[in-house]
Amino acid sequence: MAKVVTYEELKAHSTKDSLYVLIHGEVYDVTKFIDEHPGGDDVILAEAGKDATQAFEDVGHSDEARDLLPPLLVGAFEKDGALKISDTKTPGSGASVSDAVEQGSSLMYFIPLTLLGAYFAWRFYGA
């Protein structure tokens, strides 16, 4: 039977010496990983004691980063506790990629066209 982590327990493990992180309704002990985190320890510590799902997904972690999570699993977060967990899309659902493309669609066209225009201006006026 999987362990159920309470909000009080999550808050109690919110220091660099003992750090639990809540992602997608599951609690992970990232204490040993914190010094190896590419974004630095401050990024993880800022999400201590609360639902870090949105912050985790906003960064766009790689599959390799996601593969590091299962061995760090402590247990599931309590369903009806003081902290309400967000209803963020689960990893691997194509919806998050689709949302990112929709939000960045203007830049996906603007930046390449700007670079192309700069190249042609350079070739025309500079050469």
UniProtKB/TrEMBL annotation:
<keyword id="KW-0249">Electron transport</keyword>
<dbReference type="InterPro" id="IPR001199">
    <property type="entry name" value="Cyt_B5-like_heme/steroid-bd"/>
</dbReference>
<dbReference type="InterPro" id="IPR018506">
    <property type="entry name" value="Cyt_B5_heme-BS"/>
</dbReference>
<dbReference type="InterPro" id="IPR036400">
    <property type="entry name" value="Cyt_B5-like_heme/steroid_sf"/>
</dbReference>
<keyword id="KW-0349">Heme</keyword>
<keyword id="KW-0812">Transmembrane</keyword>
<dbReference type="GO" id="GO:0005789">
    <property type="term" value="C:endoplasmic reticulum membrane"/>
</dbReference>
<keyword id="KW-0492">Microsome</keyword>
<dbReference type="InterPro" id="IPR050668">
    <property type="entry name" value="Cytochrome_b5"/>
</dbReference>
<feature type="domain" description="Cytochrome b5 heme-binding">
    <location>
        <begin position="2"/>
        <end position="78"/>
    </location>
</feature>
<keyword id="KW-0813">Transport</keyword>
<keyword id="KW-0472">Membrane</keyword>
<keyword id="KW-0256">Endoplasmic reticulum</keyword>
<dbReference type="GO" id="GO:0020037">
    <property type="term" value="F:heme binding"/>
</dbReference>
<protein>
    <submittedName>
        <fullName>Cytochrome b5-like heme/steroid binding domain-containing protein</fullName>
    </submittedName>
</protein>
<keyword id="KW-0479">Metal-binding</keyword>
<dbReference type="GO" id="GO:0046872">
    <property type="term" value="F:metal ion binding"/>
</dbReference>
<dbReference type="Pfam" id="PF00173">
    <property type="entry name" value="Cyt-b5"/>
</dbReference>
<comment type="similarity">
    <text>Belongs to the cytochrome b5 family.</text>
</comment>
<keyword id="KW-0408">Iron</keyword>
